[in-house]
Amino acid sequence: MQAIQTVYFGEVSFPEACVLHFERGLPGFEHETEFVSISREDCAPLIFLQSVATPKLCFVTVPVLPLCADYTIDLQPHERLALRLPADCAAGIGPDIACLAIVSVSEDGPPTANLMAPLVIHVPAGRAMQIIQDNPAYALRHPIGDSPCS
């Protein structure tokens, strides 16, 4: 069992198998390659992605399906390879593939979710990456609580 000290959650313990590996990090945070997900019942459906290396770095995310029930992901061959998806694995959201949108909060509007560039996680492999979706229905700043995407 590993433990890290975080700014927002205090000490967090987790098994090594729960670490999500972002091979190239995230845009703007390329050196941050390992995160652990933290779910709290009082904050559902939010999921916090806490950096293993940096105590003050934590992304607030939300699963995409509550925001857009028919959301689909389109993975390119190099993305499937990076996520270590087996060739016969369908790239649909389900028990093996999670899809999270990063939440942004501003002072002048409602919180929004980035449906254009979700975080795709191959749960069994513990591999994750941010994927750019080429679908005009998926907004960079989709208002949370707004009507579903179409």
Widest beta sheet: strand line-up:
3-4-5-6-7-9-10
Major pleated sheet:
7 strands, mixed, barrel
The named CATH superfamily:
BH3618-like
CATH class: Mainly Beta
What's the short story on this structure?
The chain contains one helix and eleven strands. It is mainly beta and 150 residues long.
Summarize the structure in words:
With 150 residues, the protein is mainly beta. It contains 1 helix and 11 strands; from the N terminus they run ββββββαβββββ. It has one helix at residues 77-82, and strands spanning 2-6, 10-14, 19-22, 34-39, 47-51, 58-63, 97-104, 112-113, 119-122, 127-130, 142-143. The protein is globular. The protein starts with a strand and ends in a 7-residue tail after the last strand. The model has no long low-confidence stretch (mean pLDDT 92).
Keywords:
single chain; two-stranded antiparallel ribbon; BH3618-like; mainly beta; 7-stranded mixed barrel; globular; 11 strands; 150 residues
